[in-house]
């Protein structure tokens, strides 16, 4: 993997301080672009990514996918970077190697999100298959997932039996094996199960595969066999068990668990106030994502419902930083979960 000749740790510290020079920002953008571009070239060479439907260059895709990382809020802060380099990833706790490794993972995550978005915009058939693969994985308890360098991998064996040290099963060979085993009435869940059974039944290659590559293989097989997409991606109510209300509630609970140590244990805020934040956050997310309204209600207004007589000045001085950070984290969780339903 490409390594930057520029030390990124001091650059990230500069950016996260809020007083970065423009040349520091440009240097970090350049490093992110290098990571993204190199990974995209790997995907194209290995036939995981086909640009014919995108009408974009590799350079354009790389910049498009990392753009969100460098969006600023009204105070000029890079909120995605601030949220990522916190807690166990706090920038002051990292050395140069750690900083490069974690930043590369963050770029690869954004790259995966961006590629999924581009497929949705430019290749709706693949986007539908990818969506159904993600939903199917939720519905099959024997399938496990893990993340490596920003990419999700699937396996159906014990972790110690994944054979991580072995090479990857060639995608063309796996596609050919799948073609001989699927039936005309097979659906996405059948495809995934058969693919993982093929991996588990051999000793030459590792026994896990990238989720997005499984979607690529599925599309190739149904195209070559002329199987109607509706037969493979049939509507399955069991795959849609997580409705929006559940996603919102689960996201709020997850934020509470994730940030409890950061805020309550460290005594930055007391537990009662932390719970008021969570309740206010739940109401706000319900309005935004379940009711499709609430856009005219400001974030402070939701907190004022729980804290009578809260003034704007008090909100800005005492609550704004903590509450709005919780809101950003929760919204990101909800959006990620909703991608699998839309």
Please give a structural write-up.
With 342 residues, the chain is mostly helical. It is 61% helix and 4% strand. The protein contains 14 helices and 3 strands. A 3-stranded antiparallel sheet has the order 1-2-3. A hairpin with a 2-residue loop joins strand 1 (144-148) and strand 2. Helix 1 (9-17) crosses helix 2, helix 2 crosses helix 3 (58-66) and helix 6 (124-139) packs across helix 9 (211-224).
Quick structural overview:
By secondary structure, this protein is mainly alpha-helical. The chain has helices at 9-17, 22-45, 58-66, 79-84, 96-122, 124-139, 171-181, 188-200, 211-224, 229-232, 244-265, 271-290, 299-306, 312-338; strands at residues 144-148, 151-155, 209-210.
What keywords describe this structure?
3 strands, 14 helices, 342 residues, mainly alpha, 61% helix, 3-stranded antiparallel beta sheet
Topology:
Blueprint lengths: L8 H9 L4 H24 L12 H9 L12 H6 L11 H27 L1 H16 L4 E5 L2 E5 L15 H11 L6 H13 L8 E2 H14 L4 H4 L11 H22 L5 H20 L8 H8 L5 H27 L4
Antiparallel strand pairs: 1-2, 2-3
What does the average pLDDT come to? 83
Outline type: globular
Give a short account of the largest sheet: 3 strands, antiparallel
Query: How many helical elements?
Result: 14
- Low-pLDDT residue intervals, each spanning 5 or more residues: 235-242
Query: What is the terminal-to-terminal distance?
Result: 33 Å
Structural class: mainly alpha
- Beta-strand content bin: under 5%
Radius of gyration: 22 Å
Strand order of the largest sheet: 1-2-3
Helix content: 55-70%
H/E element sequence: HHHHHHEEHHEHHHHHH
Number of strands: 3
